[in-house]
Design brief:
This protein has three domains: 33-141, Alpha-Beta Complex (Dipeptide-binding Protein, domain 1), CATH 3.90.76; 161-237 and 448-478, 3-Layer(aba) Sandwich (D-Maltodextrin-Binding Protein, domain 2), CATH 3.40.190; 241-445, Dipeptide-binding Protein, domain 3, CATH 3.10.105. The strands form five sheets. It has a seven-stranded mixed β-sheet with strand order 8-9-10-1-11-19-12. Strands 14-18-13-17-15-16 form a six-stranded mixed β-sheet. By secondary structure, it is an alpha+beta fold. It contains 15 helices and 21 strands.
Length: 481
Amino acid sequence: MTWAVHVSLAPTWLDPAETPGLLTPFMILYAIHDGLVKPLPGNPMAPSLAESWKTSPDGLTYTFTLRRAAKFHNGEPVTAQDVKFSFERYRGTASKALKERVVSVDAVDPQTVRFRLKQPWPDFMTFYATPATGAAWIVPKKYVESVGDEGFKKAPIGAGPYRFVSFKPGVELVLEANEQYWRKPPSVKRLVFRSVPDDTTRVAMLKRGEADVAYSLRGVLGEEIRKTPGLVLKSTLTTWTEWIYFADQWNAKSPWHDRRVRLAANLAIDRAAINQAEYLGTARVSSSIIPHAMEFAWAAPPYAYDPGKARALLTEAGYPNGFDGGALATDASYATIAEAAVNYLQAVGIRVTVRGLERAGFLKENAEKKLRPLVRSASAATGNAATRIEAFVVSEGTYAYGGYPDIDGLFREQSSESDRKKREATLVKIQQLMHERAMFLPMNEPAFLNGVGPRVAESGLGLIPNYLYSAPFEDLKLKTP
């Protein structure tokens, strides 16, 4: 079974330790690796490598009992030492938050691992055991120590339903079925992921039978899939939002420092038109970076499409003739959305250009805070409002270029609040401040539109609620010839 993938395949996606606050790497992690707990069909927090877990009455201790049948691809059992090692080497999104709050990870015996917290943390399982992070996805301690981090990315060993065969970075990943996978032997014996950034090429591959699933086919290409006999357009939904980030809002010399300018940019965008053109009307117009269905989300007032008021705000801010707004950096696979936004900004006098980068490079430069003054950002990572805020809003967030002391203080306050209503009130206050300051330019909560070819009996798309990609891989099926 072959996927035409819309982004360049990055070596870091083979190692759970480097998981960013995005869902993209999980298209690979679900195949090669396995988590203690993860979303599965019918259960958003299903036992996996851990067959069970319990929390102490005081909320300070989480004890996981490992599944005895779980083994890595080299035949070695998954043990508590591997869980401890994987947590300690984790350096992806929210690693600082996790390690500040976890006092110790103790391998009680080979099948039992215990996490002890400094103080009760209601969000521990949300941060640790969902695709908000990759911290609970387990790698083999002995093997990683023998080959090193770089060696591991070149030839990863996991505990998932598929074994590593070969990888050409940015081009192709080939995997074969792990017949000993604890949940079930996979039906499809070989998986091939091919990086095909050009949309029209993905469609052509699907039509020629060179790909069985083609990810991310928007606009006219989505319509073409709908109209082609034998092909199916399949959409998936999740806690996914996209927005433009004003990375220079903390630079007093930048026009983007002025809230009126940021608000003008928000009023310049016709979100509904972008939804119709790009997502065939299947997206949800958004006024926040927090998805509406995410726990603790606040319903931010929608931004009207009002170019007249946008021009008036620019004049009030001292830019009656507009200004040069710099470059909008974007993952190249979503360049058409960035271009649409830029056209609306230019129409009110904000002169912006588009800078497209392949995804691995985009994520690297974004994490290094090099993409100024504007970034087309997005996240489909699960979790709740706090996990999204931690990655993109607080000053030390993985993708935050700055922050506000009062928001940082409120975030620290809610993280240890055990009263749910008080915690929700604090998270709502943070979101209200984000909106009042026009920190972001939210656009849509997209639908992920994909093409499925005639050989496929089960694509895995939509099997796991709120998950975009094909999964679980062991459930996929091809039609009998």
